[in-house]
What we know:
Number of domains: 1
CATH architecture: Beta Barrel
CATH topology: Lipocalin
Helix content: under 10%
Radius of gyration: 18 Å
Distance between the termini: 39 Å
Strand order of the largest sheet: 18-19-20-21-3-24-23-22
Strand content: over 45%
Shape: globular
Number of helices: 0
Structural class: mainly beta
Largest sheet: 8 strands, mixed
Oligomer: single chain
Amino acid sequence: MIGPKRIWVGIGLVLTIAPTACAAPPDIRPTTVVTPPAIPTAAFASAEPSPTSPSPTPEPPPAVVTYTYTYTIVNAYPHDPAAFTQGLVYADGVLYESTGLYGRSSLRRVALETGEVLQRRDLPAEYFGEGLALFDGRLIQLTWQNNTGFVYDAASFALQQTWTYPTEGWGLTHDGAHLIMSDGSAILRFLDPSTFQAQHEVLVTDGGQPVVWLNELEYVNGEVFANVWQTDWIARIDPQTGRVLGWIDLSGLLAPEERQGADVLNGIAYDAQNDRLFVTGKLWPKLFEITLAPQP
């Protein structure tokens, strides 16, 4: 990052973010929550350059309407308020969770209804855990600035291998054929799930403008859902074109008294068998099952 970033959030609101945003203090990202006053057309900024290839040229604005979605809470479940949630996956009746912070990062299996941690593997203190995906019986976990990914047996949590990547690690999901990875820029990178080599990438845009700070990811019915870091918004992305198809406004999930000590929204999991969507945040005391509807 060279120099401060100017990020468009909402209509007519510009924030200047210092270049140390992702690195200070040394063991935690900044916790300032930016709540857009209206639907964002995107978190706009110049796209971060890809370390492996030139950034794709943004496509023309889409002809289709970009919808805003609101939510209804179906269920609220307990969530460990000490879990700095970075990655979230639902499978076989339980949640798998990757948590962050140096010295506190972990891989977990969690009971949905109670929030009880059923199984846990702690990362070495020098690693900051990030995104998580379950693919072909393996749990694949990113780290933030260590350029290292871990592959575990999903049943035993035994470490099977490590792999490296040239960017920061933020979010991870898959579409059944590729792992899909974010690094905090406007780029989604599609990886071979066996070799972890990048196969292709897309630039995420809304109205032709790059959308940056893409964080935790989930593949939902042919779309990539992406938390936009430091906001209460999730972008619904076409993985073929990178165009934002809609925005989900999740402001107000936590009551004001529950916000005390909580950090930003981060964590999306989808139960494909039962069509259930779950969301939570870093250090949140609750995890929510929600349904979505276009905002009137």
